[in-house]
Amino acid sequence: MTKKVNIGIVQMSCTDNTEDNFNKATQKIREAASQGAQIICLQELFKSLYFCDVEDHKNFELAEAIPGPSTNALSNLAGELGVVIIASLFEKRAHGLYHNTTAVLDADGSYLGKYRKMHIPDDPGYYEKFYFTPGDAVSGETEDTSDPVGYRTFDTKFAKIGVLICWDQWYPEAARITSLMGAEILFYPTAIGWDTEETDPVINEEQYNAWQTIQRSHAIANGVYVVSVNRVGQEAEQQFWGGSFIANPHGRLLYLAPHEEEVVHTHEIDLQKLDHYRTTWPFFRDRRIDSYKPILKRYIDN
User: What distance in Å separates the CA atoms of residue 10 and residue 135, rounded to the nearest whole number?
Assistant: First the structure.
């Protein structure tokens, strides 16, 4: 038996013109659909430059309601093409309350809901705490899918998927919880790159390899496919490193994008094989949930 799904990824560069970026993304969604893609994932904050490199109140003007104009347009596109679209947007929830949010549009054009980024970084060039409130901490879905809390899965036409966003990818807890909620594929819309002032190639290589390795480990530990979609191009002091990839549940790379080129790529995966992976290495079976209470502590003092 097979349950094959075609995954489409859109790795692209952005400018300071949000309309141009949105139009480019929709064109590339159409290109992926023409290749046979059924679930198409865009990179983190695809409508704009990665504005979190500075703390500037003017950037709040980029935010929008979700659902709203962008999700409405993408819903129409999803319904027209018969594809699932995963779209990362800057959400204005209320005055003074903003989120880094990903919306999921199903293949019939319906809005399935959204996930709000839970882990918010604050590092040089990534001042996200200035802009984003973390997603609410209670896990599970609410009756009102327009205002979810915690980690989520989405029952799309083609697969049950989980969505996590960029900095979430460094946390095994996020991947594990989303997988335990039934996700067959974990999608990571991402914006990450090298500091243009860093001249040591070893440091740059180590950073990229760490980024890829941690996500491939989530695929292995949870018996799921992982799809990570990054941006490319230089913005301010960051050279976004692209390198988008698809990994199978043993962490093997099924596809790896280049570092500097825009890419639209479609790759077939077989969800029926998940049972094989999870019975061969039965990590879920052997979990010792009775021993994990210490993970709820910030730090354990000996």
Answer: 25
- State the total domains in the chain: 1
Residue 160 counted as domain residue:
yes
Listed in sequence order, the residues at least 6 apart from 119 whose beta carbon sits closer than 8 Å to its beta carbon are: 134, 167, 168, 170, 171, 174
Query: Can you give the CATH number for the domain in which 80 is found?
Result: 3.60.110.10
Look at residue 132 and give its three-state secondary structure.
coil
Asked whether residue 58 is domain-assigned, the answer is yes
For residue 20, what are the domain limits?
A: 4-296
Decide if pLDDT at 172 tops 50.
yes
From first CA to last CA, the distance across the chain in angstroms is: 51
Positions marked active-site: 44, 117, 166
pTM above threshold 0.85: yes
Assigned domain for 302 exists: no
For residue range 141-166, what is the model confidence (pLDDT) as tens digits?
444 555 556 899 999 999 999 999 99
